Amino acid sequence: MNSEGGCCGGNLFTSLEPAKQAEYLALLAHEARLLQCSLESEDPVTRRIGDRLQRALEQAMDADAPDEAEGAQRELEQALTGAHDAGMVLSAELGEMDVEGALGTMRMRVLTTVLAPQPQDA
Q1: Most CB contacts within 10 A, which of 1, 4, 12, 22?
Q2: 29 in helix, strand or coil?
Q3: Residues 63, 69 contacting (CB under 8 angstroms)
Q4: How far apart are the first and last CA of the chain?
Q5: Over the Cα atoms of the chain, what is R_g?
Q6: How far is CA 120 from the centre of its chain?
Q7: pTM reported for the whole predicted model
Q8: H/E element holding 117?
């Protein structure tokens, strides 16, 4: 697999309020065909937040109707608020990845997220 993409989650994204992050993430997730979630913590609370965030991103990816997209965005906002309250930050990047399959190589859009503890100097 080969992947490449541009940054979509730098300081501007992480400084947004959870509602704006959720709006932005819902748009990115809807464009993606694959999802890669990474968690930089092992405590149970962070794992629960990461699981909830991943489910919300999957909902956003699968949303076809406007009410489904709005529901996914609300779930994202709640998960991001929980992450913020727990001292976590999320970065996100939309890129492309070559995926080998039965029909040959396909280029797919992938949303990569990383949930990590907020830096101490922030």
Answers
A1: 22
A2: helix
A3: yes
A4: 35
A5: 14
A6: 22
A7: 0.81
A8: strand 104-117
Instruction: Give the H/E segment covering residue 95.
Output: strand 88-101
Contact 94, 8 (CB under 8 A): yes
Residue labelled with tokens 């709005």: 70
Type of residue found at 91: S
- Plot region of 67 (φ>0 → left; ψ -120 to 50 → alpha; else → beta): alpha
Q: Are 26 and 76 in contact (CB under 8 A)?
A: yes
Provide the CB-side half-sphere exposure for 101 (13 A, CA). Answer: 8
- How far is Cα of residue 105 from the mean position of the Cα atoms in its chain? 25
Q: Give the C-alpha separation, 94 to 109, whole Å.
A: 7
Query: What is the rounded CA–CA span in Å between residue 72 and residue 26?
Result: 7
Q: How far is the C-alpha of 30 from the C-alpha of 27, rounded, in Å?
A: 5
